[in-house]
């Protein structure tokens, strides 16, 4: 029989990335958290966390954390919605969805005022790792294959264009000589962001030489507007700038449709089902089909 106090300690260490932060989250001492992890490992006969900086869950540790997340889903389904306690919802989302269509979709859920959201921002290509490791209740990402114990629903596609300011295009002459894009400053969200690389690859060009790393959707747009670089931007986010001519195609018109999916556990609770259905409904109207 699993001791869920011990699993909560494991989950906190994985989620926060350290024993000290896990102790703060659980309102325990660091030694108490360490003791619970050791107790769990003693009962199971093998390690659940590799003592690194930050700690890394073993394969068993990830399975246990995954199991705990599904148990939490079942517990949510047993809660009385009228009891007045907020429902804690932890989701992995991509930054561009947060900057465009997702807040409106979440707010439309009838239960949203009863929910406390913890939104973990990850690139759409890698966000599913959080769910695979049992760290979140649901995930929006570009991966169509569900995790073990999970299911998936298609949301639609977020359309991207390779854009920059007119001054940038004129300075680097990227429309008349696309090969100059390789040496021109390129905007990337983080090290997992490969959209710009896909753009250059589609033009038969090597990866960008110069890169500005801008881990903010709003900052990404501002950097492009002020001529600091070019990048793949969601049409939904920059429609007004395209209409006004403040942003233009940096080279040949290039459209990249990134599919988005909502991943959820098969043990999905009623509140999460309501949220998912509302988000899917709004995505069908706000995203490309």
From TrEMBL:
Domain of life from the UniProt record: Bacteria
HTH lysR-type domain location: 2-58
GO MF terms held by the record: DNA binding; DNA-binding transcription factor activity
One Pfam family cited in the UniProt record for this chain: HTH_1
UniProt keyword Heme present: no
Alphabetical keyword list: DNA-binding, Transcription, Transcription regulation
Family label: Belongs to the LysR transcriptional regulatory family.
Protein name: ArgP/LysG family DNA-binding transcriptional regulator
Naturally occurring in which organism (per UniProt): Vreelandella nigrificans
Taxonomic path: Bacteria, Pseudomonadati, Pseudomonadota, Gammaproteobacteria, Oceanospirillales
């Amino acid at each position: 029989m699993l001791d869920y106090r011990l699993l909560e300690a494991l989950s906190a260490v994985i989620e926060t990335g350290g024993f000290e932060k896990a102790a703060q989250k659980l309102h325990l001492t660091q030694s108490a958290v360490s003791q619970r992890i050791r107790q769990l490992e003693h009962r199971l006969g093998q390690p659940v966390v590799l003592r690194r900086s930050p700690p890394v869950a073993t394969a068993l540790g990830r399975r246990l954390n995954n199991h705990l997340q599904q148990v939490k889903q079942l517990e949510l389904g047993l809660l009385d919605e009228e009891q007045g306690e907020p429902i804690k919802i932890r989701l992995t989302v991509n930054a561009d969805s947060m900057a465009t269509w997702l807040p409106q979709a979440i707010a439309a859920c009838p239960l949203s005022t009863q929910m406390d959201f913890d939104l973990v921002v990850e690139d759409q290509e890698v966000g599913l790792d959080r769910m695979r490791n049992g760290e979140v209740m649901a995930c929006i990402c570009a991966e169509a294959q569900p995790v073990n114990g999970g299911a998936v629903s298609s949301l639609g596609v977020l359309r991207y264009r390779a854009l920059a300011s007119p001054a940038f295009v004129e300075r680097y002459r990227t429309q008349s000589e696309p090969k100059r894009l390789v040496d021109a400053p390129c905007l990337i969200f983080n090290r997992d962001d490969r959209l710009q690389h896909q753009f250059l690859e589609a033009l038969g060009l090597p990866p960008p030489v110069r890169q500005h790393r801008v881990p903010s959707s709003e900052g990404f747009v501002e950097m492009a507007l002020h001529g600091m670089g070019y990048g793949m931007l969601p049409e939904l986010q920059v429609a007004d700038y395209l209409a006004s001519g403040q942003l233009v195609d940096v080279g040949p018109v290039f459209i990249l449709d990134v599919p988005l999916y909502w991943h959820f556990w098969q043990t999905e609770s009623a509140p999460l089902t309501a949220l998912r259905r509302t988000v899917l409904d709004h995505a069908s109207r706000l995203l490309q089909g």
